Amino acid sequence: SKGEGHAWNLVSINGKYYQLDVTWDDPIMADGSHALYHHYFNLTDADMALDHQWNKADYPSCTATDSNYFVVNKLLAQSQNDFVNLVVDRVEQGASEVSVKIVNFVTSGFDYEMATTLAFDRLNRGGSYSVNDIQGIVDISFQ
Which end of the chain has fewer CB atoms at under 10 Å, N or C? Predict the structure, then answer.
């Protein structure tokens, strides 16, 4: 993974296989604190192959999306408008942090800076955000 030796898991859920990298979803930050993400939680081979390499012939194929974290939790956005509405809805329901996967992030031209600014403005709240531009995920924390 990214040029370093690394191990992760292949899991079977209801007879379907998924890629799961708990190491990358629970990193220790530079300041020693821990973060918790779901970027690598039940991915397809295609999603995992964006930044991981393995001998695919040695393992079952992972093509299902049913148990992907973002699918199960309805955290997928097709457009900037979807993104803003989803974030606003989750915060109005009490969330202080929201992670959203942008469908076709690389090819869609999604402007995450504008989208997060619109969400902050609509909620009249400040916060911070980070982007996993490989997996197309925006993580937002509100104050």
Answer: C
